Amino acid sequence: MEYLGFVPILLLVALGAIQLGLIAYAGQQAGTAARAGARAASLDLGAQTGCANAVSDWLSASCSASRLGDEVEVTATVDIPSLVPGWDFGPATRTAVMPIDHSDSPSD
Q: In this structure, is residue 64 part of a structural domain?
């Protein structure tokens, strides 16, 4: 009977561990989306398209790009999923900067 009383605590610890993994994964995906979006924006292919293609299908990502002279800066925001209703961790945000490609032909 003593072990049955400890089961809810173990479940709570397990949920917390899984939630921490989701937070880390969302942060990693935000970094990947920012780099892919910056790469796409530097080639004039659209930052949002690059971001959306780089993130797992079950996560939602949005990107905003701004031009900084000969560079483009892209900020990606990925919503962190929550396992327990009511727990809100906000979004994961990462930024990447890439030089703008001025060449008209692909490099060899």
A: yes
Q: What would the DSSP string read from start to end of 51-83? A: HHHHS-TTS-EEEEEEEETTEEEEEEEEEPP-S
User: How many domains are contained in the chain?
Assistant: 1
pTM above 0.90, yes or no: no
Q: Report how far apart, in Å, the C-alpha atoms of 84 and of each of 59, 77, 92 are.
A: 17, 21, 18
- Say how many C-beta atoms besides its own lie within 10 A of residue 91's C-beta: 15
Please answer whether residues 40 and 55 qualify as being in contact, where contact means their C-beta atoms are separated by less than 8 angstroms.
Answer: no
- pLDDT, one tens digit per residue, over 11-36 is 888 998 999 999 999 999 999 999 99
Q: What range defines the domain where residue 86 resides?
A: 2-99
